[in-house]
Amino acid sequence: MLEMKENCEKCEVPTAKTAAACICSFECTFCVPCSDDMDRVCPNCGGELLMRPKRTLDV
């Protein structure tokens, strides 16, 4: 199951399960503004940052 991290790894802004956020294949999590500032490239692994799917159920 996808780990839904609750804060941006760069600026620490909250990224709630229903909020827009970007992740890489290793589930590094960034808010959309930070992701855009990094040209959608993960600084940890160099992977592509994509929009994280939103979870509607509290699983």
User: Structural class of the secondary structure composition?
Assistant: little secondary structure
Task: Note the beta-strand portion.
Answer: 5-15%
Query: What is the CATH class name?
Result: Alpha Beta
**Helix share, percent:** 10-25%
Name the strands of the widest sheet in spatial order.
Answer: 2-1-3
Order of H and E elements = EEHE
CATH topology value:
Herpes Virus-1
Rg measurement, Å: 10 Å
- Give the number of domains: 1
Mean pLDDT across every amino acid position: 91
Q: What's the story with the biggest beta sheet? A: 3 strands, antiparallel
N- to C-terminal separation?
Answer: 10 Å
| Number of helices, counting only DSSP H or I runs of 4 residues or more | 1
Q: What's the β-strand tally?
A: 3
CATH architecture: 2-Layer Sandwich
Low-confidence stretches: none
Textual characterization of the structure:
- The protein is mostly loops and 59 residues long.
- The protein has a single domain (1-53), classed as Herpes Virus-1, CATH 3.30.40.
- It contains 1 helix and 3 strands, in the order ββαβ.
- It has one helix at 32-37, and strands at 22-23, 29-30, 50-51.
- The chain has a 3-stranded antiparallel β-sheet with strand order 2-1-3.
- Strand 1 (22-23) and strand 2 (29-30) form a beta hairpin.
